[in-house]
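Kindly inspect the following:
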Amino acid sequence: MAKAKSHLVIVESPAKAKTIEKYLGDEYKVKASMGHLRDLPKSKMGVDIEHDFEPVYQPVKGREDIIDELKRDAKKSDIVYLATDPDREGEAISWHLKELLGLTDENSYRVTFNEITKKVVTESIQHPRQIDQDLVDAQQARRVLDRIMGYKLSPLLWKKIKRGLSAGRVQSVATRMVVEREEEIRAFEPKEYWLLDAVLDRIGKQGRFTARFHGNEKKKLELGSAEEVKEVVDAVSAAPFSIESVKRTDKKRSPAPPFITSTLQQEASSKLGMTPRWTMSVAQQLYEGVEISGHGAVGLITYMRTDSQRISQDAQHAAKTFIVDRYGTDYHPGEPRNFKTKGSAQDAHEAIRPSDVRLIPEEIKKDLTSDQFRLYRLIWSRFIASQMAEAIYDNVVIDAASAGYIFRANHSSIKFPGFTAVYEEGKEEKEEVQSPLPDLQVGEEVKLHEIKKEQKFTQPPARYSEASLVKAMEEKGVGRPSTYAPTISTILDRYYVIKEGKHLRTTPLGEVVTDLMRERFGDIVDTEFTAKMEAELDSVEEGKRPWKSVLSDFYTGFEKELNDAEQALDGERIKIPDELSDELCDKCGKRMVVKSGRFGRFLACPGYPECDFTKPLVIEMPGRCPKCGDRILKRTSKKGYTFYACGKGADCGFMTWDVPVKDDCPECGKTMFKKSGRGQKKPFCINEECPNFLPEDQRGYKKKTAEAKEGEEKSGAAETETKKKPAAKKTAAKKTPAKKTATKKATGKTAAKSGDAAAK
């Protein structure tokens, strides 16, 4: 008869439960809580402000079966191990579980796993601890703080601007950052500058090279006008050139540190085209465990919500062994590399690294999804490179002088690859290099072959991408690793910000809300205030401050600002300016405006109610229609699928599910396309008359039946027809009773969700 399981281990996800149960043996039963089982109520604030900010927690609705099952299993167990994620929120979930299941200090313990491997899991179970109440209180303070702000600010925005809006300690600051970047762009005044290159030849020898204007013999100069350029050109055209200096140096470059949450999100965006939200979702899968042939379920990486660059000695030793065996002793620096963690970091966990460096990405690729493989390879490569030797470059800088002016040429070539044999950080500011330079000597005269000049203008700062916004939030101390991705998702969901390509652009709604927040709640949307509040929460975690005193200090000033704002805005309703589009109304010819509805943004005629014409929001894609040469527009079918159609609609009839790209086919000159979906995809030509034509069945899609194709074409064609408001209302009225109920519930909870948005 099988021995009864006497120990219960509770984790958050079924994937993690499966992996851990494999490591612990028959005496342990591992169950998943599926996240929070107790929280503040959805339909009301749930915080008693008058009685020392006491929170009122309730079991999460819809989780009754899980709670009952865990209670039964807990009663049958000698010991319950609370093994939720190793961060503040995970500690709070364990505390809630302990309270909800009626556990005591004698029959329950807290364990954490920085990585889901047999060694770490078994060691952690052997060294349990009690719940860290300081960590729990820090999370309670964050939760209650964000709930108070959300529930107090959101109704004000509803009354003064528009229903369904929200504000919060982190999301409002993130929105302000995007708004202020847009304001910088609008206020930017371009400044003229010139690039001046001298193409030089050796006299009597082979060797032409290009040197760029650097300045005069005293200092570096910038050329700001055509007159300044002419002065230099006239001078050097009438004087000889000679080599003034030749400097050869070995330039060393050190590897980047292993990933933390923010740098992983940035690099995954830059190299893999993955959004922060999707990056964290895939990283969670890698952490919790993936079935690997010959190994079973394996957690492939360490915990992915971290701001620490610390690496364990065991991991450093494993990396050294791997590097020496695979690349040789020259590729290891001799001593393990350690990286300094920022002073504001919590430093609760190691950096993100592979749990076992011997699980080489290419060797387990067949067991991973495409995104799992790409992200795991990125993490694995970055960690291995971080422990490798420096790369060494042979760097040559040559200065050519004429008429008192200096023209400089430089070139770098790899001398020893070091860590670059494995990984190079994707830097936008990567140094430009040119072709190898001739073996020139100091004092050697060279001949001017040609002068090249180019007028340029300084460019405004670039709009934030999701990745660069994460970087800016981290630098300013806005939020913590667990909040970056949810915060960006929130401001996108609220339409305070929209994505155009990879960049984030503020909307008129986002600007109106930010203006109100800056005017009436300037400290709340100030990055320094938000960073200070994060530091206050850290002090609670460290046991230096009572969590309710942090709330009390905050609420005193917040309540006064709220009352002042209510009085100042009494009777006022703030209008959201129309966002003009380039589209003209098909009925009356007016320039259409962008509106937001229940199902997203759409185009509407500003002449309503006299003209009620609406149509889907037009997003212009790169390239041209392969049939008629008109623009290509991004559309959405009635079932929510994205397709691409000619701007002329039914007059042309072209539509495709493939994504147009900016490149033209080198053979026929028509726009190329790529397969839809995440990640890098190779462009192909869809022109059947072109030698480069790639048939549909070779583009990587599943083969479609003739009936399916016909259905897709009808769906796409139907979407190009215009929609009218009365018809939309009629459709909405015909919803099934089930959908009506769902809609009613959603409406009733909107304010509650708005109040919670800042915490996410």
